[in-house]
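2024-03-11 09:14:02 INFO receiving multi-entity request
2024-03-11 09:14:02 INFO entity count = two
2024-03-11 09:14:03 INFO echoing inputs for audit
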Amino acid sequence: MGCGKLLAYSSHQRKQKLDLLKKNIGSLDKVLFGNKTPHQAVRIARGGGIPATQHIVQNADKLTKLASYGKYGGYILGGVGLAAGCVQIANEDNQQKKNEIFVETVTSIAVGLVGGALVSLFLISNPVGWGTALVLATGTAATSYIAGEYFRNSYTASGNKVDFVTGLGISSVCR
Amino acid sequence: MSVTSVFHWTSISFYLLYANMACLVFIFIIHFFVPKVMIKTYFKEPYFSLLEIKLFTGPPYAYMRTVMMMRLAGWPDCGKKRGIPATAHEVCPVWFQVLSRVFIRTFLTVAISLLAFMGGTSIIFTVFDMW
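2024-03-11 09:21:47 INFO inference complete, emitting structure
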């Protein structure tokens, strides 16, 4: 393959990759690249003294950071929920209330995880944009909250036959 | 335990919740048995975006990748929109394909049943003021 053909081929491949990147990033491109399009932001660095792939590496780093924020969000949501439940259990004297808080916390987290698994089943066949991802995440969070409340009521209505807090040793951990 | 208490709505809701929790435990266990070759071949660009790869690798969302891989193993056609070839299942062993099909059907049944039961009873109890 001649030099000209090779250049045209690599340019075509690069355009295809950038089109794919633009499609994957969707409406988030404004957050990542400001007023530039992905094609402009990830262009080959022509300035002297810096590697040609500098812009590509920088923008990949931005995406990686964004994913890290998403992970931290998951940790914070789960961690704060558990910690808040534990503090509430510790501050409550009534055994029935302690059990209700425990059931609400555990159910909320479990249903959130189940929701995440259901969303994954959908995601593998339907790569979604940021708007849909946000709707799915909000829907899962709302369902998890509602499930917590629902099972708290269910536990009360069932006559509180099972003492989870004592049986599972929660009272010795959250005190 | 009387028959009425076994079929009481609170008992049914808790059974469904336990079934869902058992499915979650199963996902966390099977996570370590997902064929590495499948992840290496298909959980990468251009099939998944860089953001998805980073997000679904490691805790806390790695179990979502496991569920995706299981669906891909059981229903190879499902990755068509992502550009994943319909031969994706060929890289993983038959036991994983069969297990994936059985598990995902079971999981969908118990998860949808729980959500439907919760929704149904909530609507009935709210309409008839029975909470």
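2024-03-11 09:21:48 INFO post-check: The mean pLDDT of chain B is 90.
2024-03-11 09:21:48 INFO post-check: DSSP finds six helices and no strands in chain B.
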